Description:
The chain is α+β, with helices and mostly antiparallel strands. The protein has helices at about 20-25, 65-75, 115-130, 185-195, 225-235, 240-250, 260-270, 295-305, 310-315, 380-395, and strands spanning about 35-40, 45-50, 80-90, 90-95, 135-140, 175, 180, 200-205, 215-220, 345-350, 355-360, 365-375. It folds into 2 domains: about 20-75 and about 230-395, DD-peptidase/beta-lactamase superfamily (Beta-lactamase), CATH 3.40.710.10; about 80-225, CATH 3.50.80.20.
Amino acid sequence: MTGAAPAPSPTPTVLPDPQVVARKLAAVNRTGIGASGYVVLGPTGTVLASRSGNKPLAPASTMKLLTSLAALDTMGADHTFTTRVVRSGSRIVLIGGGDPLLTDKQSASAAKPASLQALANATAAALTAAGVKRVQLGYDTSLFSGPGFNPAWKDKWHSWVARVSPLLIGSGRFNKWQADPGPARTAAAAFAKRLKAAGITVTTVTPSRADAAATELASVQSAPLATVVAHTLTYSDNLAAEVIARHLALAAGGPASFTGGAAALKSWLTAHSLWSDGMRVVDGSGLSFSARVTPTVLARAVLAALDNQALAGIVSGLPVAGVSGTLKDRFDDKSEKVARGNVHAKTGTLVGIAALAGYLTTADGARLVFAIVANKTRGQTTAYNWLDRSTAVLVRCGCR
Length: 400
């Protein structure tokens, strides 16, 4: 992997006794939990406990850990995505650069520095300086290929799962519950409106390929990939994960599609000894029920990111129990509260599936890495309780 090798972490002289760890985890109530597996690693990768740790299971959104790890290692933490406007005569083209966090109005968020508002103002200034007040607007989405909705996803999700596109705003959604079926068209229309407000008349808005000889008028840059990854993991942003997977495919020389992203991720995982028999990659977000990953691979992905500055975006993006992101409202039972503010982990949730992969610090000061995955569960609360109580057991652990 890129960057310096992970530095040794300060650890207690004596790590938890593996037999005691296994016994305490086995005592956590598993009623209602179907197929499952877990693994607990010491700071250098020593296996302290494992139950079906090498069993391929549906990972749900913990798949985003693998997508993020491969992307950061391949493209680098400072990589950015550029949204551009080019001009050929009286025609300008808005070119989607695959910024998953592009906004319409300028945002104060560090994760969302690029906006159509800023791009339109810069474009209008360049056009005005050239004496141009009327333009035709095209929008170019040729960076990505293939469908925007994965055929492996459930058909009933069409109304709310965002379509993958290199040009979109608002994460490709009209609101929390409604996906935009034409995100590029919506972005182009919003850009035209911004141009009008800046004094430029737009006569038509149509899909178009940019002329290679066109002159660039303006551009806006996304946040660095490390920041985009941190946002993606904290909020479990499915659309951002899929866009990142397409960029990974492009960096690997493949097509920027669902199949291209899956192939690039599998290739990277294999090359870095993070692939096991029975695993399957279908998308970059983990929305597919047919994806399969082992708990051991998830744990080793977290371990790879710890103490490696080049992969710091993954660590900083992990939600914190009871504090942030998708773990803000978790670990709320009396037996779990000891883990609040301590457990840093990526969540995974689909119907009948729950997963948690991250790291924690025990009562004796040992940093442990873990991954716990449950499939075929009877109720989401049941699954969450098993995951949260298991990690809380580790937090309380002296285990000697």
